[in-house]
Structures are given as C-alpha cells and as structure tokens.
From TrEMBL:
This is Tryptophanase. Residues 47-424 form the Aromatic amino acid beta-eliminating lyase/threonine aldolase domain. GO terms for biological process: aromatic amino acid metabolic process. One of its GO terms (molecular function) is carbon-carbon lyase activity. Gene3D superfamilies: Aspartate Aminotransferase, domain 1, Type I PLP-dependent aspartate aminotransferase-like (Major domain). Belongs to the beta-eliminating lyase family. Its cofactor is pyridoxal 5'-phosphate.
Length: 459
C-alpha cells in the first residue's frame, strides 16, 4: 500500500461543504434530469467533476490578484506572463486567452482546412469539437496498451506512430492538417506520454512537413512522469524536461486551469512562426479581446504568471501525483477496476468492468457517475460513449475505447480523509453493482452533448 504523500503546504482558509441524505440526492438527480452538470454545487459533498479551474490558489497568487493591473492594453501582468511562459516553454510568441477551448478556437482554424484530418494520441471532447467546428475530422491513434486497463505500462498515453504514418500514407499527406499530442492523455485515463514518443512524433511531422501541436493542459504532470519513469531523465529538473518536451513541437494550446492552478486562463504559444502568431492575434482580438489581456482580467494574468512557476515545483508534483496514486492503491486493494496505473490528475474507474451488464448504448460510465452521487454526494464525470457522442456523418452512437467514470482531483483542495470516503462509497456500490441501471438520452444538443443533455434511467 502506497503511503499518502503529506501536503507541502498548510491551510489558511476553509470552505464549509454540505452534507445531504440519499433521499435528497435522488431528488436532486431527478430535478437535474440525471445530468451531474446540472446539479447545484451547494448540493455536492466531494466534487470530482473536473480538475479544471477547481484548484486552490496559493497566497502568492492571491497577493498577485491584489496587485493586478487592469489596463486594457499593455498591462504589466501580461509582460510577467509572457516572461514566465517563454522561460518555461522556450517559445517566442505567447498569447493569453480565457481558457483552453478558446486557445483551440483561435489556433485550429488557421491550421485546419475544410475536410482535412487532424490526428491525435486522443482528442478530449472539447478539442475534438473544435477540430470539427473548423471543418476537420478528428482521428485518434492511441497506443494499444491504453485499452488494457488492468496491466501496468509506463506510458499508456503514447501516440501509435506506426498507425499514424500508415494513415497519413493511406489518405495522403495533403489531407492531414496537424498532429496534436495531448499530455497527459486525458481520455486514455490521464496517462502520460514518453519523451521518446514525443521525439518520434516530431520526427514523423518533419518527415511529412506537418505541424506538431501539444495540448499542454497537464504538461507539468507529464514531465513528472517522464522524470520518474524514463531512465535518461531521472536527474533532470521538471523545468528542463518541460523545455525539451516543447522543443519538439511547433505550438501549444493550454488550459491553464489545470497545471497552472488558476480558476480561469489559457495560452496559445508558438515557437517561431510569426505569420501563424499574427493570425492568432487577429482571431484573439475578434473573439477574446485585445492581445495583452486575451479575455482575462489583469488580476487573472498575474495569478497565471505565478501559477505557471508553482505548477512545475517538484515537491508539489510529488504530492499531487502521490495523492492520485494513494487513491488508486486503495481502490485496487478493494478490487475496484480502473485504468491502471493511476493517471496524473484523476482515477478513471473502469465502468465497463464494474457494470458489465450495461451496454455502451446505455452509458455505463454515466451510470456509475450517477450512482456515486446517490451513494455519497460525490460528483464525478463520464469519459466514455456518453461523452463521445454520435458520428457526425451517420448520427450513430460511437463506442468509446473505454467506458470510464473519471474522479478528477482538484489541486490542493481535498485531504486523505476525503479520498477514503470515495473508496468507501465505491466499495458499497460494487456490492450491489448488478442492481445499477443504464440510462438513455431524452434530449441532447448538436455539439458537446454531455454538458446539457437530459437523461432517464432504463428500468
């Protein structure tokens, strides 16, 4: 059993959280049409819906907020952010935006032409949507080990280089817009990508004159895994590993709400392509605001600049990932199946294995998510066929590679005792797993349905 890694910080402020009864929670779910995004946050005991923007900022970040410069143009927080981002990523051009999907919105239309294909180790839902909104077709080629949730592999998030090259040759390189490397690989279970795989992807892009873009939401966690799992990097700092990682790519998009530990913010960084940067600036002005604030308040820029540095601190990352590993070990001891080993930001419960009687059409990941809230007031999130949606051309329900219920752990928020409550709730659900029902959708939007869909249980 892995020992819980003690927090490298002390607590200065607390926020009370509400305790509810199972009867109350069942009523709340009915009112929310069985969509956990529609639940009120006040009715959640432990909120593991996402690690995006839900972390606890440090005293230094809050101090930065108090001295934020709210000038419309040329705010000093922008200069501070650019300086820190250039130092960490090694890229010349830095454009702040309000969050990760905004970064995709101002970059992807410049890279993707109508009908072109974009390849990734695995697109997350919002990234996939922005490929499609730009007229492209998203294609996933994650390594085959990602489908094996039971056995240990160091880097289950890797891009399958062989399949990617075969696909490029099959459809023609002129029909490929870009390769996007997601680090860590969220949809595959928060699994890391090796430095060697990033190098190989870079070489492939150079061979076919394609751009490599890194989805960098959890870049620091990925760097920690490289340091602890790749022999050549054991003595290197997180910062040095990060700079090498991005040296192999041409640009990055980033939701800074994860590894930069802010409540709002994002980045587009471009290595040295001035024309591409000019295009990004123009779209930023149109969609986000002037280039030096990019849809953010000056105080947000300052908190982000500070958070970038805090997010690459080794002691913090050791605690952060150690917390996830502790939860994983407790669940493994209890016989609860999940994507093993534990990812960097979350535990991805294997709902297909825990609820084998529920087909992908009835969304086992969503069923487990709902059951977890019923049992203990814990909010999680489906990362499976429910989130994946339907084929854009045929309208048929797509089957996800895995049917996950994701327990995303906010940074610097919950304690060991909270994680133990999660384990106890899942042990109880496991004891009555055969009684859990699947769900069907009664209404859904055209894009990113899982945020606002309405469902009902199949009785």
């Amino acid at each position: 059993m892995k020992k819980y890694v003690a927090e490298p910080f002390k607590i200065k402020m607390v926020e009370p959280i509400k305790m509810t009864t199972m009867e109350e929670r069942i009523n709340y779910l009915e009112e929310a049409n069985y969509n956990v995004f529609a639940l009120k946050s006040d009715d959640i005991y432990i909120d593991l819906l996402t690690d995006s923007g839900t972390g606890a900022m440090s005293d230094s970040q809050w101090a930065g907020i108090m001295i934020g410069d709210e000038s419309y143009a040329g705010a000093r927080g922008y200069a501070h952010l650019v300086e820190n981002a250039q130092d960490i990523f090694g890229y010349r051009y830095v454009q702040p935006v309000h969050q990760g999907r905004a970064a995709e919105k101002v970059l992807f239309p410049l890279l993707i032409k109508q009908g072109q294909h974009a390849i990734s180790n695995m697109f997350f839902d919002t990234t996939r949507a922005h490929v499609e909104l730009s007229g492209g077709k998203p294609i996933n080629f994650v390594c085959e080990q990602a489908a094996d949730t039971e056995n240990y592999y160091d880097f289950k998030g890797n891009l399958d280089i062989e399949k990617t090259e075969a696909y490029i040759n099959k459809v023609g390189v002129e029909n490929i817009a870009v390769i996007v490397m997601t680090i860590t690989n969220n949809s595959a279970g928060g699994q890391p990508v090796s430095m060697q795989n990033i190098k190989d992807a870079s070489a492939l892009c150079k061979k076919y004159n394609l751009k490599l873009v890194i989805d960098a939401a959890r870049f620091a966690e990925n760097a920690y895994f490289i340091k602890t799992r790749e022999e050549d990097y054991k003595e290197k700092s997180i910062k040095d590993i990060t700079k090498e990682t991005f040296s192999y790519a041409d640009a990055l998009t980033m939701s800074a709400k994860k590894d930069a530990i802010v409540n709002m913010g994002g980045l587009v960084c471009i290595k040295d392509d001035e024309d591409l940067y000019q295009g990004v600036k123009e779209l930023t002005i149109a969609y986000e605001g002037f280039v030096t604030y990019g849809g953010l308040a000056g105080r947000d820029l300052e908190a982000l600049a500070i958070g970038l540095k805090e997010g690459i601190n080794y002691d913090f990352l050791k605690y952060r990932i150690g917390q996830i590993e502790y939860l994983g070990d407790k669940l493994r001891e209890a016989g609860i199946p999940f994507q093993y080993p534990a990812g960097g930001h979350a535990i991805f419960l294997d709902a297909k294995a825990l609820l084998p009687h529920i087909s992908f059409h009835q969304f086992p990941g969503q069923a487990l998510t709902i059951e977890l809230y019923k049992e203990a007031g814990i909010r999680a999130c489906d990362i499976g066929s429910y989130m994946l949606g339907v084929d854009a051309e045929t309208g048929e329900q797509l089957e996800s590679l895995n049917e996950f219920c994701r327990l995303a752990i906010p940074r610097r928020v919950y304690t060991q005792a909270h994680l133990d409550v999660v384990v106890e709730a899942l042990v109880e659900i496991k004891s009555r797993a055969a009684e859990v029902n699947g769900y069907e959708i009664t209404w859904q939007p055209k894009v990113l349905r899982h945020f606002t869909s309405k469902l009902k249980p199949i009785l």
